[in-house]
Design a protein that fits this description.
The protein has 232 residues and is an alpha+beta fold. It has 4 helices and 14 strands. It has 2 domains: 108 residues, 2-Layer Sandwich (Alpha-Beta Plaits), CATH 3.30.70; 107 residues, TATA-Binding Protein (2-Layer Sandwich). The chain is 24% helix and 38% strand.
Length: 232
């Protein structure tokens, strides 16, 4: 990358992330795709490697502090170049300062699996319709429509559905009576793995930014405390 402009140093403590996982988490928080691995030899028989991605006109490169890309690391740096690089570097600093966390999906998903996030509705839970409206506002996702499915045994299932950034989203309550207070809302994301991972990170960031607690099924979500150093 020519004419590097701005650098943010990241500290991500134990359990430590490999280079690719760090790229997924950090680039995802910024709204960029995971990107791709790069490697280039240097004149002194050394080498340079990391992950790179694009965010509009901004080029991103992430490097670790150790020389094995598959080993856990705790210190990373993200370099921003291009028009808007300074603003994106500052936004990453603000995201880390606001959330104090980096969100990382560790468990692999295949096309037949959905990732389900459980959203805490707080100390004053409300009925299902009000919970749907509240979650839609928190997530900043529109276009929800009610779906009701009836089964042969007389049972039924109901939820709200929309499609956002290439991912099927389903939002349902944890109580089967619509007028009862909903203590948790269940948000399921289904689609291509990389697309689901990036969108889940973005939605989690929005919820965490509002101070809303999130858990995930099957241990698929790991939230790691993080901090950022100074911009250079």
């Amino acid at each position: 990358m020519k004419a590097l402009a701005h650098t943010v140093e990241l500290t991500l403590p134990a359990p430590g992330l490999c280079l690719k996982d760090a790229a997924l988490a950090v680039f995802g928080m910024l709204g960029a795709q995971e990107g791709e691995y790069f490697f280039r030899p240097l004149a002194n028989q050394d080498c340079d490697f990391g992950w790179r991605a694009r965010l509009g006109d901004v080029q991103l490169q992430l490097r670790g502090s150790i020389w094995e890309q598959d080993l856990p690391d705790t210190r990373f740096r993200v370099e921003f170049a291009g028009k808007g690089g300074l603003a994106e570097a500052e936004r990453l600093r603000q995201l880390l300062a606001a959330f104090g966390q980096v969100i990382l999906l560790r468990k692999g998903l295949n096309k037949h699996q959905a990732l389900t996030l459980k959203i805490d509705m707080g100390k004053s839970p409300v009925n299902l319709q009000a919970s749907i409206d509240r979650c839609a506002q928190w997530l900043n996702v529109s276009g929800w429509r009610y779906v009701e499915k009836h089964f042969g045994n007389g049972d039924m299932d109901f939820y709200w559905h929309t499609r956002h950034e290439g991912v099927e989203l389903r939002l349902a309550g944890d109580r089967w009576e619509q007028e009862l207070p909903q203590e948790q809302m269940h948000l399921s994301l289904q689609g291509k793995r990389a697309t689901v991972e990036v969108l889940a990170i973005k939605l989690c960031a929005r919820l965490l930014g509002r101070g809303i607690a999130i858990t995930a099924d099957d241990g698929a979500l790991l939230i790691v405390a993080g901090s950022a150093g100074d911009c250079a």
